[in-house]
Structures are given as C-alpha cells and as structure tokens.
Amino acid sequence: MRTTCSMECRGKVKCLIRADAAFRVLAGGGLRGIHFVPGPTGGEEEEENAPPPSRRWYRAAYARMVRLAGSESGGGGGPRQAATGSVGAEARVVDRMAEFDELAARFAAWQRAAPPLKATSLSSLTLVCDVLGVSAQLRKSVRLTICPQVTQHHIWRGALEEVLRDLRADMAALGHPSAAAQMAEQIAAACFRFLSDTADAATSSSPSWMRPTPFNKPAEPPPPSKTWQEVLDMFTDLAKSLEADARLAGHAHKVSAMKEGLYQIRNVVVERDIAFKEARRQDCLVQKKLSKSLGHSSKCLYTLLLFYLYGTVRDVEVHAGKHLSGKGGKNVTVHAAMFLTDGDEPAIRSAVKQLSRALGVFRFVWEAAHADSGDHASDSGKGAMAKKGHGDDAKGLLKLQGHIWGLGVEEKQVAYRGDVFHVHQIQLP
Fold first, then answer.
1. φ, ψ at 285 (rounded to 5°)
2. Which terminus has fewer CB within 10 Å in the chain: N or C?
C-alpha cells in the first residue's frame, strides 16, 4: 500500500533546473559526482547519539537527492505509473523514494531543528497512539469512544464498497493484468453487485421501511435469507487472488482487514427488502457485534474510522515526530511531514490533502483519548468529543504542525481546512 498511498503526493519532476545546476557544480561538471556515504543505519539510540553530519556530507546528500528525483522522472513517471509495470520496476521506485525521504528528513531536522522524523504508515489506532504517546489506559477510552460512531451500518457498508471501488480503480490501471488479477476483478465485481442487490431498491415505488410485512404467507417457503457469510466467502477468495499478484498486495491487506469484521457478523442478514423493524434490528446487530469484537489494534476498525472521517479507506503515510513539553511531558507537539521530488502546485495540493488527513486523525484520536468516560455511549457525531473531556491542564495540549519539503519549491504557507501547512525548500547548509 505504500506505493498507492505515496503516489498522491508525488508527480513528474518539471522544475528541477536549480537543483540540477547545483548538482553539476557539486560534481565539478563531470558525471560521477561526490562519493556519498549514507548516515548511521543503527537503531534510534545510535542515530540520536551520532555526531551531526559534516557540511560535505550534506552537499553529497543533496546531490544524491537530485539524482534520485531525476531517476523518478526519467523512469516515465512517478509511483502511480510504476504500479502498472513490472514488480521489479515498482520495487525499485519504492526503494528510491524511501532513500529520498530518508535524506530529506535529515535536511528537515537540520534546517528547522525539528524532532527526528520517522516514516510512519497510519494503518491502525495503535500506530496513531504510538505517535501521540497515548498511554495504555487511555487507549481503552479511544476504542470505547470511537466504536459506537464508526460501526454504524451505513458506515460499515460504505467502507466495504469503497474498498472494492478503490481496488477496481487500481486494477483497471494495470497494463498487463495477470490471471490472478483478472480473477480478482471478477470476484470484486460480483461482490459489488451483491451489495448493490441487497441494498434498498432505488426502483421500488416505496422505501423498504414503508412496506409492511405481508399478511398472507406465500404458498411456497421463502428463499433462505442472504447473510454476510456470502460476502465473507467472496472476500476470502478475493484476498487469495490479490496475494498472488505482488502489485496488488496492498489491497490484499485491506481486504483481509475487512474480513475480520465480516467474520464477526457472518450470521447477520444482509437483505434490505424487509420490514422496517427487522431491518432496524439487523442494523443494530451489526453495530453491536462490531463494537464488541473489533479491538484497539484492529485494522478493520481503523479503516472504518478513515471512511467515517474522510470517505476514503487508504492508509496515510507520513513522516512523523513529536516533542514533549510542560509538566510531566503532557503537552505534545506532533510534526507531520511529506517530501516531494516535484515543486509544482498539483503535487503540493496533493501533499496538503494527505497531511490534512493525518492531522485530522491525530486530532480525533487525541480528543477520543481524553473524552469523559461517561459519554462514550452517547457519542454519535464527529464534533461531539470536541466539547467534552477534561480541561487542558488535566489532559495537556496537542499542537499539530504540517510541513512539506521539496526541491525547488517556493517557501510559503498554505491554509487548508483550518490548518496552516508550511512549504519549505530543501537547501544546502
């Protein structure tokens, strides 16, 4: 999933003239350039205790980043295009971008004295809480607060359909689909039709809740009710097909995550063309079973949260770091950053949207962690938690900062959905 998530904040390199000129100067006009020695590769403690890199190291690292950015452009496009090619080409792009991000993170720490920024895939509540430093006791509060909101039937059904919609969109972009991908497409299409057929019929003269139960029973016994077990069976086969094609492995993880919830409600009726009371009972049963069974570390629960907040199911990938302050380190400042090889406006706007989602998840989980325990059962809206909770002195303060770093970008600030994002140019010391 890393490739499909990071592709939204990367584009083709169009304006690297300044960076390319700097590279040529550093290389002395030749083609070999400065010999580049990577930084420390040990654990976090070794990296923090290592002496700061020399000026020469930064110059060599800068030249290396320019070459990495140029290789992405020269390969015919960014990660989105690579995903449609061979598995080997995709892996090479991912490796190059990971190296670019690692080097850019060091420049960010040097230029802005930011805390160490680590590549973080926000794919579960546990990972989000790790960044925020939420204690084990408060993580239970997070789950109890979020579950009643995100396990509502329309959220559950919408998330399932979005997983399938996302998958089919990426499979349609595959240049040469494998036999496994073709099978996955057929299963996904059948599953999508099943969900559509069991939804409220749009062509009906009246909605299902207005149709009373027939007084006279039919002469023949009614067909067996459709249950979520049928969807679970299709998702099981779908996951196997996706796992056979490495290009779709990220989608296989997401399909497998949703299987966790499907297993818990496999005996619940799916059909919507039933009387209102029965439909409502089935909806409540879905919410009850999911709320009880999905644990804090569940990727299924986190997928529902993403759909609840943003209508998307793709995990967010950022570089994140935190700084603690105040008495007992209760105040937390989270730095979330993304690194661009391209400085054009579409790439910056895409990065801003990705960072906005990351900051929104951090803010939502922080408020959930500090919500009053007595209000968990009554939470039913996104804004409910912002008005509850203990005072700032009791729970501490959360400050969120979004930063975008790139080669050749214009230094500026971008306002988006109530947050201000800082755009920085990666510069030589």
1. -65, -40
2. C
List strands edge to edge, sheet with 118-122. 118-122, 316-325, 331-340, 398-406, 419-425, 412-416
In a domain, 249, yes or no: yes
Give the DSSP letter of residue 269.
B
Other Cβ atoms closer than 10 A to 48: 9
Q: Please give the model's pTM, rounded to 2 decimal places.
A: 0.80
Residue 240 is which amino acid?
A: K
| DSSP states of 160-184 | HHHHHHHHHHHHHT-SS--HHHHHH
Residue 138 included in any domain: no
| Residue 90 one-letter amino acid | E
82 pLDDT more than 50: no
SS3 state of residue 423: strand
Cβ atoms 258, 204 nearer than 8 A: no
| Distance of alpha carbon 247 from alpha carbon 75, whole angstroms | 17
pLDDT at 29 over 80: no
372 located within any domain: yes
Domains in the chain, number: 2
Q: Do 266 and 388 reside in the same domain of the chain?
A: no
**Does residue 156 sit in the same domain as residue 288?**
yes
- Same domain as 262, residue 388: no
Q: What was the pLDDT predicted at 139? A: 93
Give me the pLDDT at residue 378, please: 37
Q: What is the pLDDT of residues 169-214, one digit of tens each?
A: 999 988 888 999 999 999 999 999 999 988 764 334 445 555 555 5
Domain assignment of residue 142, yes or no: no
User: Based on the domain organization, do 284 and 329 belong to the same domain?
Assistant: no
Could you list the residue range(s) of the whole structural domain that residue 166 is in? 152-293
List the alpha helices (DSSP H) in 294-395. 299-310, 345-369, 392-395
> Is residue 209 domain-shared with residue 264, that is, in the same domain?
yes
Average pLDDT, whole number, for the chain? 79
Burial class (CB in 10 A: 0-12, 13-18, 19+), 212: exposed
Do 51 and 107 lie in a common domain? yes
> How far is the C-alpha of 60 from the C-alpha of 58, rounded, in Å?
5
For residues 272 and 376, membership in a common domain is answered with no
41 versus 66: the higher-pLDDT residue is: 66
Question: What percent of the chain is helix, strand and coil (3-state, nearest 5)?
Answer: 55, 10, 30
